[in-house]
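User: Teach me something about this protein's shape.
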Amino acid sequence: MSTTMYYEKFFHFLCILAATNASIYENLKYFEIMHADELHHHIVKRGAQESVHPLNKIKEVRFKTLGRDFRLILSPKKDMLHSKFKAYAVDADGKETSVHIARDNFYAGRVFDEINSYASIHIEDDGVMTGMVKVKDETYHIEPSWRHLPKLDNRTMITYKASDVKFSWDHSTLGPDQVGPKICGYVKEGSELEDKDDYESHRTDTVNREKRQAEQYEYSITKTRCPLLLVADYRFYQEMGASNIKTTINYLINLIDRVHKIYNDTTWQDRQDLDGFKGMGFVIKKILVHNDPTRVRGGEAHYNMNRDKWDVRNLLEVFARENTSKDFCLSHLFTHQTFNARDSVVLGLAYIASPRLRSHGGICSKGVQ
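Assistant: First, the predicted structure itself:
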């Protein structure tokens, strides 16, 4: 599996998550409501003395929903955030204000007495949970209800099964003459910026590398984590974060955690007869949340400016110009808007870069290898 396909899959998964943010009645066949008071918490201490070690305290959480009893065994999750992780609120003038995030509120674990189960949970100070529980043949999701049912108590959650999610682009529901919408797209960059010598050199290197791989298939993996920059514009902050900085940041961390789990457990291989490799994933290094539209000066466009309608390609280009730091292998903008492209609706767009010299945009660009 190539690196390009690796991150393209990541991007497509995030687009699917974004697409589920429509009406809950349109997107779910069935769901249930659960209140934070129905959760039963118990902390089991390990060791005679207090310690920062993640196994020093294990939290047990019990609840009933969707026809079964859950008993989760959880410990603080430490591997999703970079050692130099920072989160900031960004005002209309671009001023960044540091935001403290309680790392110990993020948990990972399993379902008691169920082999190969997995749980990833964030617990707010008021007891509201967000996360997922995966067992052998099903995945259960837990989310705050205000995002879908704003009239309910803020300490209420909804629970649903992954198998009950209805995707609007599911071709099985379309007629014989209907075509499903285009959900996510990508832009290949670089070919227009390179001269013939660069192209010939790259082609020769590619042929030689493929020949060597054919003779002896061997991976030498030195980096297994992609440090991310996550940016939420003011629309996402208002709609998905309930105009709350910490709620927005916690939501983004939960999204990436779900994606990381998929990638970390996936075996990547070019051919079925070869072993391939696994253990690739993501770590969040920085999060920026815009709490207001950015004031623009001098007519220069900004991805967070107050504009009624964006062309998706134009927004991608403007965002890429603003975020070119080599401290991250991938920058991702979250926005609460859809983009019309001819007769379809595009929920996201990404660069798929050329590995050639002087190319730009995308995960494969020179300088982020």
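Now, about its shape. The chain has six helices and 18 strands. Helices lie at 3-19, 24-27, 196-215, 234-239, 245-265, 312-322. If you'd like, I can walk through any region in more detail.
User: That's plenty for now, thanks!
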